[in-house]
Amino acid sequence: MLRKTDLEIYRAIVAEQRKQRSVINLIASENYTSKAVLQAVGSVLTNKYAEGYPGHRCYGGCQYVDVVEALAVKRACQLFGAEHANVQPHAGSQANMAVYFAALKPGDRIMAMNLRAGGHLTHGREANFSGQLYRCCFYNVDRESELIDYEEVARIARRERPHLIICGASSYSRLIDFAAFSRIAREVGALLMADIAHISGLVVAGLHPSPVPWCEFVTSTTHKTLRGPRGGLVLCRQQYAQAIDSAVFPGLQGGPLLHVIAGKAVAFREAMKPEFIRYQRAVVANAARLSKEMAERGYRVVSGGTDNHLFLVDLRKSGLSGLEAERILESVGIVVNHNPIPYDPLPPAVTSGIRLGTAAVTTRGMTEADMVQIAEWIDVALKSRNHQRQLKELARKIRRFAHEFPVQA
Ligand code: PLP
Fold this sequence. Notes:
There is one protein chain. This protein has helices spanning 2-5, 7-22, 35-41, 63-80, 92-103, 129-133, 150-160, 178-188, 200-204, 241-252, 258-271, 274-296, 322-332, 359-363, 368-383, 388-402; strands at 24-25, 52-53, 56-57, 84-86, 109-113, 135-139, 164-167, 191-195, 217-221, 232-236, 300-301, 310-314, 334-335, 337-339, 353-357. Helices cover 45% and strands 13% of the residues. It is globular. The mean pLDDT is 97. Helix 4 (63-80) packs parallel to helix 11 (258-271), helix 7 (150-160) packs parallel to helix 8 and helix 12 runs parallel beside helix 15 (368-383). By secondary structure, it is of the alpha/beta class. It has two domains: 37-271, 3-Layer(aba) Sandwich (Aspartate Aminotransferase, domain 2), CATH 3.40.640.10; 282-403, Aspartate Aminotransferase, domain 1, CATH 3.90.1150.10. The structure holds pyridoxal-5'-phosphate.
């Protein structure tokens, strides 16, 4: 049908589908949803307006979408052990915004991990609304260990007296001690928010400690390790439920995307199954193996390894920037993103590092043995950067290999 009505869009979708099958995707924030999630997101629920919440909508005819949203909320609470969930945020950024709107006034102070140490734009970057509406201060990772230094976090918190402390990151490969953050927040009288956009799949599988007992607010995306549709989620204690719901609607969004909320509900149910725990174990094992194999080939892995689904590679010794490495790897069909390493001397658009993650390749069924092969190909590609023939030959091999692992469509 689409082919007949809009050939240009049809062709772009088919090309993207073909590309997704023929590359090795190591983007740490991406994944492939199940067919059931795709079906929910592509359903007629997209036709329905439903501003408000189940049972309290601004539109008639919401009886079926109410079922969908109520199930999504119930499953989210069950999955994370949370008192309250709001599943309406269109994305992770809106989930964070909802917490700030519920907990802060413009001009209040927030404290978060520096973007260049692994934090996220919405944690106070000046180019983002969070940096414009709030006064921000940041903690870093330790220069030597490249780990969060909780003593230093406490010192900054005592000095800056933030209203809200944010923990959670986009490119931090080690366990986060939410209990330690909670002690610091209590001491300085701050509220605590954990942004587990990256690690939420690991958290529900019990492979990373949960922030839920320690934080007033927990936010997440639903499309990374959690393997749902593109979207956001806020969990909070019951006492903040009303404030969070009002912050999302009418505070910052209009009609919820019920087709996406249905996809979230399906993904939450999938995440309750034993297969999901097995999948997350494989994600972590693959990341550990890939980082070890990179280290054995002479690459410095930031902090010396990983506890989760991702890690950073410092490329300074190889004389390549992160951006150059990203481009070389893309030319052979290995997709990664350039990423600052802690205290990176290069600007964010160039960087000295790349970020590698294993959530997507593990969904396709790749194992530790495949990680050995992938590390070898990354090494060969980066070393063959001036040898076009070798790169072309490698690209052919990688395409053949990738096609052995299916992608749901
Ligand atoms: N928070 C963290 C830690 C993230 O890594 C991301 C996205 O990468 C977000 C929030 C924002 O999510 P979205 O891109 O859905 O707005």
